[in-house]
Structure formats: C-alpha cells, structure tokens
C-alpha cells in the first residue's frame, strides 16, 4: 500500500503567513505530510510552476434563498457549488432565512433538504433572523448555537427584514451569552425609504437611481449605530459588505477603542462603480446590489482596508438573479421603480480570480494576504476547524493556481445559474486550474470531475467564548 493517496509535487505552497516550495502528501482526505521528494503515492500530481493554496472559503453567499413573490434565485445548491468549485472554492456559507413567524428549526429543515446530496463542496449555514420572538431568543437560538449554527445575520434595512434597535440589542445579547457571531447589514431603512420616495416623485425611477437612494451616509450612519449597539452589549460583530471609506473608518475607530469588529468587503466594491449603471437603462439592473458600488475613491478605500486588515474577510456576496427573466431582475414591477429590482449580483466563481488578479498580480496585496482574506480568516472567524490552510492535519481542500494564466471574464465561460456576469470583459491574470475537496478533485483541467454528493454539511465551533451566565 502506498504511503499517500495523492501527492501534489513541486508546487509553491502559500498560507496566510508563509510561501515555500514543498510536496503535499494526502491520505484519507487529510494533509498528512508536507516535505521534500514525497513520491510514494497512488497518484502524483505535478504542480511545478503552480501555486498550491487552500481552497477558497466564501462565507457570504446566497443560494436558493426565498426572495419575495415571483422572484427566484438563479442558483440552487448544485449550480452554486459547481460554480464555486470552478472558482477555486471548497467551502461556502449560505444563509438560511427565517420567514416572519417561522420557527428556526423549520427553516433549517427546509434548507438542509435543498442542500443535502446537492453540493459539490462543503458548506455550513448562517441563520437570518427576521423575527426575533421570545421563543427564538430564549430557546431556539441558544440551542441552535450549541448545535453548531454559530453565526447569524440581521438587517437594519428592508421592509420584511429590518430590526429595530431594541430588537438588535436583544439579538446581540443572546449572541453574547451563547457565543454566536452576528453579521449586520448596515444601511438605514428609514433614510432609504425617504430618499426612494423623493426620487420616485421626481420621476427618477431607473436602476441608476438605486444607488442614489442609498448614499454613503446611509451606510455610514448604520455602521456607526451597529457598532455602538455592539459596544453596549460588549459583543463582537461582523459588518458585512462594506463599500466605502466612511463606513470603513467607523470600523477602524471601533478597533482603536478595543472593540472586536470584523469587516468584510466584496469584489463589486473593488472593480465596479455607480457609473457602470449610468447609461444602461434597464440593463443597469444587472448591477443593482446593496450597498451599491460607489466611486473610484471608494474603491481605493476598500483596497486600503484590505491592505491594512480593517477588512479581514473578502467574500463574494453572491446573490444571483437572472437578468432577462420576469422571475429575476426584469420582474414586471422593476420597470416602474428601482425599488422593486431584486438586490444582488452573481460572483461566486469570479471572487478569487478578481482578487488574485487585481490584488496579487497587480501588487496591491501579497499572496499571503490573499490566502488570509479568502480562506484562513473565514475559517477562524466562523469557527471552522481544520479548514482554510495548508497544514498537516487539515482537510486536503486545495486549489492549484496558475499565476500566469490570463483570461477575460465572460458569461459564456461561467458555471453559475445567472444569465450574465457584472464583470464581463474584465482581464484576469492568475487562474485556479484545479480544485480538490478533502483529497478528491472536484474540478480538473477545466472540467467538473466531482459529484454533487461530495459536499458535506459541517457544524461549526463557537467563534468566541460566551460570557459567563
Ligand atoms: N444583502 C446581502 O448581503 N446580499 C444581497 C442583498 C443584500 O441586501
Ligand atoms: Zn446584506
Ligand atoms: Zn449578502
């Protein structure tokens, strides 16, 4: 019997802190050896000239999430995780949405049924708490955190999701006691409603005005308030999908006060701007997401946030809707106002190539920062054991990258369920040529070689120690 099932030979390994040449020996789905001249294997994969990186962990994706009457997300678990694997990822964390009045366990049962045997890569779920009732706060949530559902998202905007400050405080208090990590979507609901009403009355109803209804101050104010509420309860939080300097500076200042505030940004805030929608008419709907893409100065700020560690998480916020579809961006109401356009854009497959190309290849961030921002920090922040690094004892979740391969992003080459990419035409240098999940190839030489029964659901540990009762 060979010592290893697989050896990846002569590649350059990068972790969040180191870059070095070595062979990786894999047995029973785990990395069991890292060394020189490992050869005794059933299969030897030559990775000379290639980078051997941890598979990407995308801790912010939306898959098969109920999105309102008549609206259907463009991806189910099979297509989203297939696209993720082509993009060099081995783990995703989508959101299980609680409907108003719905017990969390019921929402989870339905969501597990959608994912079960339908995932090409590993996954676990965040909860979205839309209705923090007494039983949710007092019983369901603490029990679910103990069962490994250790993170949840709450919203400060959207009619059917926005929580009051009182409700946010209640959720944060339960998180503190149970050791769960709360993600906050920070935009001021009333301010958006006020601005949207004004824009509509003035006849400014096209997709371009979506961004005008959610200017930076709306995000900055909510970010500041979210941080203040977390400070009051003394609990860590994550501010997700930060789009600009002002919101980022709120996080920076909170950190300087000693608070644990994690920051996340996404590809759309690095490479898109509001001008991309300007002359497109209804096609601007392809770029409608919240917070909206801003301007060049905001892009620069987001790069600084990544470089300086204000943002420790780089996620896709993949939230796919088809464009040319009445169940997607062109829902009949969308023509009457931007207000009705489903919020979100696809990006699960393009997240890593965009950050690699714009970040590593262009010298804005190091390869080690890339690994930290796209894999290691996600595992550490969300309590995921044995994932997110190339190290002995870790799962053999590995992406092999050709740092010199060039490509032009195009819908025709992507594997998601959407009918467009907002990144059409973006030139990329650096591409994941193979993705391996727990020692088995899922994608190799541009082909899907894995099966949708490969991916496993994993429960997670507590992101931080809960406070004493
Ligand atoms: N928030 C997200 O995280 N994703 C899409 C839409 C939204 O508002
Ligand atoms: Zn959000
Ligand atoms: Zn999201």
TrEMBL record:
GO terms for cellular component: cytosol. The keyword Secreted does not apply. One of its GO terms (molecular function) is dihydropyrimidinase activity. The modification N6-carboxylysine is found at residue 153. Residues 3-38 form the Urease alpha-subunit N-terminal domain. It holds the Pfam family Urease_alpha. Its EC number is 3.5.2.2. InterPro entries: Amidohydro-rel, Hydantoinase/dihydroPyrase, Metal-dep_hydrolase_composite, Metal_Hydrolase, Metallo-dep_Hydrolases_sf, Urease_alpha_N_dom. Belongs to the metallo-dependent hydrolases superfamily. Hydantoinase/dihydropyrimidinase family. This is Dihydropyrimidinase. It comes from Bradyrhizobium sediminis.
């Amino acid at each position: 019997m060979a010592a290893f099932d697989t050896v990846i030979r002569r590649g350059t390994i990068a972790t969040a802190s180191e870059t070095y040449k070595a062979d990786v020996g894999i047995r029973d789905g785990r990395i069991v050896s890292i060394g020189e001249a490992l050869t005794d294997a059933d299969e030897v994969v030559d990775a000379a000239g290639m980078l051997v990186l941890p598979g990407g962990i995308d801790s912010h994706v939306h898959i098969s999430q109920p999105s309102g009457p008549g609206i259907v997300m463009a991806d189910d678990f099979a297509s989203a995780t297939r696209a993720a694997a082509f993009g060099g990822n081995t783990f995703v964390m989508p959101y299980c949405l609680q409907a108003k009045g719905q017990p969390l366990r019921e929402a989870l049962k339905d969501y597990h049924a959608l994912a079960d045997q339908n995932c090409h890569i590993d996954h676990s779920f965040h909860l979205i708490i839309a209705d923090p009732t007494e039983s949710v706060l007092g019983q369901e949530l603490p029990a679910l955190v103990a069962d490994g559902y250790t993170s949840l998202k709450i919203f400060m905007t959207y009619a059917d999701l926005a929580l009051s400050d009182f409700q946010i405080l209640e959720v944060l208090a339960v998180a503190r006691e149970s050791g769960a990590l709360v993600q906050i979507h920070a935009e001021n609901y009333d301010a958006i409603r006020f601005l949207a009403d004004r824009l509509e009355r003035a006849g400014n109803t096209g997709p371009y005005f979506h961004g005008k209804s959610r200017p930076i101050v709306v995000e900055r104010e909510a970010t500041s308030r979210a941080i203040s509420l977390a400070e009051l309860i003394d609990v860590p939080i994550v501010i997700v999908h930060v789009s600009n300097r002002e919101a980022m500076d709120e996080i920076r200042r909170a950190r300087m006060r000693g608070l644990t505030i994690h920051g996340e940004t996404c590809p759309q805030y690095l490479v898109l701007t509001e001008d991309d929608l300007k002359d497109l008419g209804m096609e601007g709907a392809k770029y409608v997401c919240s917070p909206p893409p801003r301007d060049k100065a905001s892009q620069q700020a987001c790069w600084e946030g990544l470089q300086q560690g204000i943002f420790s998480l780089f996620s896709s916020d993949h939230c796919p809707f088809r464009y040319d579809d009445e169940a997607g961006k062109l829902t009949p109401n969308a023509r009457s106002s931007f207000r009705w356009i489903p919020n979100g854009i696809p990006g699960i497959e393009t997240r890593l190539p965009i950050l690699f190309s714009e970040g590593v290849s262009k010298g804005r961030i190091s390869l080690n920062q890339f690994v930290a921002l796209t894999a290691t920090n996600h595992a550490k922040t969300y309590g995921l054991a044995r994932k997110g690094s190339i190290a002995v004892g870790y799962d053999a979740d590995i992406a092999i990258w050709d740092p010199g391969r060039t490509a032009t992003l195009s819908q025709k080459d992507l594997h998601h369920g959407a009918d467009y990419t907002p990144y059409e035409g973006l030139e990329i240098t650096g591409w994941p040529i193979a993705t391996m999940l727990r020692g088995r190839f899922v994608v190799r030489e541009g082909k899907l070689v894995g099966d949708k029964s490969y991916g496993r659901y994993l429960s997670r540990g507590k992101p931080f120690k809960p406070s004493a009762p």
